[in-house]
Amino acid sequence: MMHVVLFGAGHVGHALVKVLGTLPCVVQWVDARDELFPDEVPANVQVEATDLPDAIVDEAPAGAYFIVMTHDHALDFSLTQRIMRRDDFAYFGLIGSKTKRVKFERRLLERGVAASRRTGWRRSPVRSAWKASSTRRPVRSRWRSPRNCCACAR
Length: 154
Description:
Layout: E1 2-7, H1 11-20, E2 25-31, E3 45-49, H2 53-59, E4 65-68, H3 73-84, E5 91-94, H4 98-110, H5 115-118, E6 128-130
Parallel strand pairs: 1-2, 1-4, 2-3, 4-5
Antiparallel strand pairs: 5-6
Helix pairs in contact: 2-3
């Protein structure tokens, strides 16, 4: 079964969990702010209230789908860098602007993340996405409605 790791329990994360909760996938919903999680979540959603989200990246299974949409640019970058150093994820999406993308790409380069790992930014609801594969090609966006905003809707 597809494993989606969603970082961020803000309003966008809440909306995405409502959709993902209807799909055949396991969702690991991660945020340090425990008070933002609802009392009830769909059966396929696991809430992870943690101050160590980098550990969640490391513990995620091979083939995981990562979606980063936190309230903190520094945390977004830390998670991005950690995810980019993995070579076994199926998808990575990051919410943000073109400026954020450019800054992150530059910082990843400065920290030694290979250019092949930094390619594939796509404009989409989560603004940018990478797909891990031997060719490191961009993810093709199929997103037309909230029901298919995630790869597990395919």
